Each structure stands twice: as C-alpha cells, then as structure tokens.
Write a sequence for this structure.
C-alpha cells in the first residue's frame, strides 16, 4: 500500500497566489513526507540509466548560443520518457507539457541546456571512482538528466498532478546568454501568462535553496576620442584619462551591505602602440544587488560618474582634434527579486531537502529563476545529485555515489509532487 | 677642372671637438658650395641604379629584430660599391670602414635596416608615375640606397677624406628596437671610443635637419592583485582602481612647454570576464622630452604617482586575499640630447640643404642620433630624396621625380665631403 500524506495539503493550492495564507507548519508537514515507496523504488532502478543519459547529454556540446544539438537530443529524450507534447520554441528552449487535472496555472520545472564552454572544447566524460569529470556535467547536464528521471517516475506511477507541469530545457542561462531562454518564456512564449510557479534545477547540492535573485546590470563603456601621436598631439584629450576618472568615480560610491550590493570594474582594453594617444578605451563594469532599487541607484551613479569624467576630460585638455564621447552599452541585465522565505514553494523545498538527509539553507544567486522572481512569480533554484565542484572549469566534476545521488535526485521529485499536488493512480 | 671650395675649411676640423670655436660664417661659406661637377655627374648617372637598388632593398624584408637578410644584402652591396672592410657586428649592424688620410676620429654615416612592419607583411614596390609605393621604402630603404650611391661617388672620384668614414646599416631603430643597433655601436662596438661625429640618413625630406634628440622613457606598469568573483569577493582590492588612480596622478602633472615635455597613457589591458575582479592590469606610458632633467623628473613623478595609487588602493579596500603590487618595467629608453645650432655639423647641413634648393629647418625627433647626442658627440639626422609620406603605414610612398630626387641625394654627399674633408684625387 502506498502512503499518500502529500494529499493532505490540497488546501495549500490556494497558496500559489497567496503565499502568506499558507502556514509554514502545514506546508512543511506535507512536503517533508517521503516519496511513495513505488516511486522511490522506480528512481533507484533508474540509477544506471540516469548516469548513462547524463553522460550522453554532457558529451553533446552546447556552447553559448549554440544549444540546438543538445536541445534536439533533450526533446527526443523527453518523448522517450513518455511525454507527447514536446516542442522547441522560437528562442530554442525545449518545452514539454505534462497536463494536470485542472487547466490552471502551469508549474515550470526547468534546467538549462547551455554551458559556458566555447565550441571545440573537448568533452569526454571520465570516471574516477565515484566521480565523473567533464565540462558542464554538473552545470547543468545533471539538471536535464534529473528531469528525465522524474518524468519517467511520474509516468511509471501514472501520477496525476493538479497543475500542469511544463518541463523546460532553457537556452542562454550562462554569461552573455543573459537568461535569454527564460526571458523569452516569460515575455513572449506561448505559456507566458500561465506560469504560476517556476523551479530551476541547477547545481549539484540538494541542500542549497536559492530563493533570492541577485540582479545584475553590466555595461561596456566605450570612451572614444580623436587619438594622435603621443608627442606631437600632447595636450589633446585622452579617453584613457576619462576611463580612469570613471573607475575612480565608481570606486568612490558607497553601496548598502544589506541587501548586498556590489560593483566591479572588471575588464579594460584600448590603445595600439605606446607612442600613440589612444582613440578608444573599453571598460566593462559589473553591478549586482538583490535589491532592484539599490541596483538602479548604483547604475545611475555609475553613468553619472562616467559622464562627469568625460565632461571633465573635455574641459581639462584640448578638444581641437575632437572631444571624448561616451558610448555606454548594456551587455548584461539580470533582474533582481526574491521569493519570500515563508512561501510554500520555499518551505516545501526546505522540507524535501531535509527529508532526504540534506541540511537545507537559503541562498541568493543569479540563475534562470531571476526572471520569474523579478516578475513576482514564485520561483526557486535548487540542486540535485550528490555534490560536485569546479563548475565553469574544464576540471568540473560530479559525485555519483549511488545512495547519496539517489537521495539528491529525490528532493526535486518530492518538491514537484508536493507543489503540483501529484497523486499516483496506480 | 674641379673647383674645390670645400678644402678651404681645413681649419674647421678642429671644430669636431670644439663646436663653439668654429664661426658659422666660415662653415656655411664652405658647405654651401656645390659638389664637384664630376661627382654630381656621377650621381646623375646613378639614378636608375639607385632606384633599382632601393627597390631591391625594400623588397628584402627587415621586420623588427629580424634584419639579418637585409643586413647581408646591404653588406654585399657595400662591397660591390668598392669597400673592402665590411663586417656585421655582434648586434647585427653592418659596418663598412672607408679609411681617411688620418687615423683620427671616425665620421659615422648611418641608415637603419629595420622597418616597423611585422614578418609576413606583403612588400612589393608599386610604381605610379613619379611615386614608388611600398612599406618601408622611405623609412629607411632610401637611406641605405643613398649611402650606396655616395660610396660609389666617393670611389669613382677617388675622394680622400681627412677622417675615416664608417658607413653603417643599423638594426633596431624602430619602436621596441629601442635604438639597440646604435646603442651597441657607441657602448660595445669596436669603434665605440673613436666616433667623432654621427650622421643618420632617415627621412625623405632633405630640408629637415634633426639636431635635437627627443628623449623618451617608456614603461609598462603591471598592477597585480588577488582577483576574485565580482560579487562574492566584493570589497577586496582591485588593480583596476590602482591603475585608474595612476592615470589620474599622471594627468595631474605639469610639464614644461619649453623644452617640450610630454606624456601619454597609451595602452591598457586586463581582466578576463565581466564577472571577475581582475588579477592583473597592464598600463603603458610614454614620456618624452628634449631635456634629460625634465624627463627624469617626469619619470620620478609617474613612479611616485603609481606607488601612491597602489598604497592608496591597499588602504582603501580589503587585502584579506592579498594586496596590490606594482611591477614597473622599462620598455623604452631613448636618451635626450642636442647638437648646438652653431655646431659646424649643423651649419654645414643647413648650407648643403640650401645649396640644393631645399629650405632647411631645424627639428627635434627621436632617431638613431639620440644616442650620440646624449653622449655629447655631434650628431644629426637628415633626409634624402624628394619627399614622401605615410611612413609606418602600408601606404608609404616616395617621390622619385628625377631632378628633385638627385638634388635631395646630393645634400648628404655634400655634407660628407664638407665634414669629413673630402678631396677628389682625380
């Protein structure tokens, strides 16, 4: 017989649109219940297959902006797992809808297709004891492989959920991708007005619950001027001086410690020869905060500092050959946001994590969940698996010790069952 | 019969070591005399050969630090021209000694072998009317071809000079070469203690008399620190901020207008990704002056500003992961100096230029002559030929209109005849 304690929270469905209405106690008491024995047994049977699929996904390259091959593979795998409504949207995201008992708000469960590794990076998974080594294996092939295992588990138990679940393989989560896949999902995709909650599987630690989105605004500031011979044209404006004054202005800004707000002048380049006044200097700036207002204020201060630096340089030296111009280009825009700690999605994730032996803790980061959080839609990013390390390096690795790995894999499925109100029918 | 007005200045030989002792009037009256008719006729006959050799030299590549092929060609051509004592020294300079009547101080007549163009730059000379186009054709293939023409003219007329003349093809005049060829000549070469005067042929304008050496000191300043994640490590020191403060300190320095003293922050690079605090920023600085003391003072101020910037950054932000270090590297060192306007070498050059229809004017620049000028040895750089343009670009060109070209070619030979006290013997 199957115990079904998760059914006791039918009332919490209301909590989707009214988080404060749910008591922490009731949410947690439900979500901390383990998966039904049959589903847990099904997951355990899946272990070898999950590892095999994980390797296959990892070895299918998905460089930034070139995720199509992995997207096609993931779509085919979702169909194999039992879903029939699988499509690839205009941005390149893989979308697979599993209908619910009601045609209400959709629960998105997503992992990202892209890696940080450029085209041509060698990717052969190497096993060493209980570790698999390969670029991107944990970030985020593991998320994709976890979704496949969960779909098969839901299908095997013929689980019926109250809410439709939309499984997604997203493009452009990393770096310059700037969350383009999930941004499309929420602003232009077919489901954009139907998404009630969002869960991103990204990271190898099933105890890490990312409920706050660190927002970022990134600029490439171009300082352009006439340039000239270092000796013959001495006295004319130099974009280097305007860049330097901008960096100085930025580093004089005081930012709040809480919510944590940061900046960095990170990349600079310009000039062609030591005996020339340069005609262009490019400066990249990263700014982050969990607080959208603090971030907006910092951005305004940066741009004001850059404009003042340019004006100051044009006043300090000759503009007879031309003046310095500032051309700011926004190269990164990840909105900030938070899902409240007492929201049922958070409470259930914490409980599911604890149930399978992890020590859940809340964290803030920049992930696909930034987009829904910034829109006020409940969203989280959680890990799967049994830990790993060296993400974003070619030495990336993943622990796959069987029992711990299955425990980590169970957390996400338990959360889906709880939050989408899943009910096995056999 | 040959007129020999240049013999009337035998007394001016004393002026080699005592410039003020020579009256301008006597020097000029001598040097303004034209070349003997036979030598002028010999030069005129040479026109086609000079152009042919100029093309051959130009099409023999001589990238920075890779002048050996052109050096071998130039050495062979000097032997063909009639000189027997032709060697290549340890630095790669071609040296060809033409003995004098006396074994006294040597008069060096030099042109540089190297170009600014990197290995693989296509170099085929193209003719368009009275212009030849090719990278390096004027800077400084023309100087080398001029020397060959002059040697043949001296040999044909069996000219005997009072002073030995050392013809040189020098390496490393351009950019990072940092005058290494002539520096070697004056500090380590076989003739280093015997050189009484130095004439560099470099430039296509026989009216430009460079009597002042603009000295330069060039630095690559490396600012190095721990680096870290732009968000996670916010608050630690950033080498970008130290670099910026250094640029600011440099641009706050007041320099003399006369003697002209200049600086430029010219090249900057550093940082690997927008979301990282960089661990290294490199900044290149060019400083120049005709006045060695002003240059030394400017250099001291720059280095003090950089040290203060680093100290300030280490005080302003956390050094928990490490402090910013400054590593200054001297990447260019061209000493300043001047040959007085009333020195016979200058006066004779002005006169010779005027004799052949040019409007001579004194100028300051950075050339091979910087080294002897800085050592107090009389030195000049003059042009040859009939003008040109776009030096240091692949569109470089040279005017070769016959009469004007021969007039320009005559200036240097007339100056050699006057200053080395040449006397035709047939």
């Amino acid at each position: 017989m199957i115990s079904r304690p998760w059914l006791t929270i039918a009332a919490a469905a209301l909590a989707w649109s009214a988080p404060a209405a749910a008591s922490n106690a009731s949410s947690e008491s439900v979500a901390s219940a383990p998966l039904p024995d049959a589903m847990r047994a099904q997951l355990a049977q899946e272990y070898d297959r999950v590892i095999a699929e994980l390797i296959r996904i990892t070895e299918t390259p998905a460089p930034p902006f070139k995720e199509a091959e992995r997207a096609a593979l993931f779509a085919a795998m979702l169909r194999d797992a039992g879903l029939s409504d699988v499509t690839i949207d205009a941005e390149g995201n893989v979308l697979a809808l599993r209908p619910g008992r009601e045609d209400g708000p959709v629960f998105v469960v997503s992992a990202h297709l892209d890696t940080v590794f450029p085209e041509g990076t060698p990717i052969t998974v190497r096993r060493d004891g209980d570790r698999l080594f390969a670029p991107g294996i944990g970030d985020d092939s593991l998320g994709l492989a976890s979704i496949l295992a969960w779909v098969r588990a839901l299908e095997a138990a013929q689980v019926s959920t109250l809410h439709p679940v939309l499984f997604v393989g997203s493009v452009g989560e990393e770096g310059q991708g700037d969350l383009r896949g999930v941004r499309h999902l929420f602003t232009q995709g077919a489901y954009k007005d139907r998404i009630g909650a969002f869960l991103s599987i990204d990271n190898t630690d099933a105890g890490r619950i990312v409920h706050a989105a660190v927002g970022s605004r990134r600029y490439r500031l171009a300082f352009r001027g006439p340039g000239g011979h270092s000796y013959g044209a001495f006295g004319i404006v130099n974009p280097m001086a305007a860049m330097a004054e901008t960096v100085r202005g930025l580093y004089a800004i005081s930012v709040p410690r809480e919510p944590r707000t940061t900046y960095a002048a990170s990349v600079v380049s310009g000039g062609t020869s030591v005996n020339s006044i340069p005609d262009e200097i490019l400066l990249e700036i990263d700014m982050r905060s969990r607080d959208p207002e603090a971030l907006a204020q910092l951005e305004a201060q940066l741009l004001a500092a850059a404009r003042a630096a340019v004006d100051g340089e044009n006043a300090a030296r000759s503009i007879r050959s031309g003046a310095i111009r500032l051309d700011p280009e926004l190269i990164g825009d990840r909105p900030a946001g938070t899902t409240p700690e007492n929201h049922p999605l958070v409470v259930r994730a914490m409980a599911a994590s604890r149930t399978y032996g992890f020590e859940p803790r809340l964290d803030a980061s920049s992930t696909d969940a930034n987009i829904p959080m910034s829109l006020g839609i409940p969203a989280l990013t959680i890990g799967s698996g049994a830990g790993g390390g060296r993400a974003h390096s070619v030495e990336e690795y993943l622990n796959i010790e069987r029992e711990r790995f299955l425990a980590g894999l169970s957390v996400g499925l338990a959360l889906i069952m709880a939050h989408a109100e899943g009910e096995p029918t056999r």
Summary: Confidence is low (pLDDT under 50) at residues 1-31 of chain A. Chain A touches chain B at residues 175, 214, 216, 218, 230-231, 234, 238, 240-241, 243-248, 251, 260, 262-278, 281, 284-286, 288, 316, 331-332, 366 (CB under 8 Å).
